[in-house]
Amino acid sequence: MLPDLARLIQLQDIETRAAGANKAIADAPGRIATLDALLHDATAALESAKHSLAENKTRRGLIDKDLAVVQQRQSKYKDQLMEVKTNTEYHAMQHQIAAAAAEVGQYEEQVLVSMMEADDINAAIKKADAALKTAQAKVSAERSAIEQDVTSQQAAVTECAAARATLVASLADPGVLETFARIAKVRGTAVARAEGERCTVCQVRLRPAVFVQLLKNDQIVQCDSCQRILYFVPPKPAESASV
After folding, report:
1. Buried b / exposed e across 96-127, counting CB within 10 Å, b at 16+?
2. At 229, phi and psi to the nearest 5?
3. What own/partner pairs with CB < 8 Å and gap ≥ 24 does 169-174 have?
4. Residues 182-237 pLDDT 10s
5. Residue 49 and residue 119: Cα distance in Å, rounded?
6. What is the value of pTM for the model shown?
7. What is the pLDDT of residue 243?
8. Which helix (H) or strand (E) holds 171?
């Protein structure tokens, strides 16, 4: 194989690895932001449930206060009932007592509803607290993994840069590097393998003369369609069947 062609194949591998590492580094802040959003949502859910419990407690306090007032009024009416002297006054007082009793019943029903709501909210708090702890563990583990991956990818980028510099310096024809860079800028990748008389990237069939030329791998041959630099890997010889 032409030495510069072999070097370009290696260069493409280095560029691909470097691009993957740079993408992983660039994606890391977004992945961490997603984790932060997950933790924020879990924290907000717990705080919302606690706020609901505080509001329930405040409402319950107001209901209890109003209930106490009505109960005192009811008790007062009962005391006054013992002091009335006429049937008219007696019936009027009984009416007041009945009205107060109905009001007491309404407040007691509100107390019961408030207690049931508190039970539901406490259950929600327990669930939200468990979800937050799960989210905290998940975020901590995944953030650490992302940070470790970034460190590893940064090392890979540095390694690729050094390997690239060494490889570029060894090219016999500087012009092939210009060709490589020009194609990579447009196509993303500059080198492609040919197989079955086709470029394996763009899948366009090669002209017979081009494919015959390519089989030797002794010169720089470009795909007529995508312009990528092509190389050919001969098929492995079939293993002889055992007798």
Report:
1. bbeebeebbeebeebeeebeebbeebeebbee
2. -75, 125
3. 170/7, 171/4, 171/7, 172/3, 172/4, 173/4
4. 999 999 999 999 998 999 999 999 999 999 999 999 999 999 999 999 999 988 77
5. 12
6. 0.74
7. 40
8. none
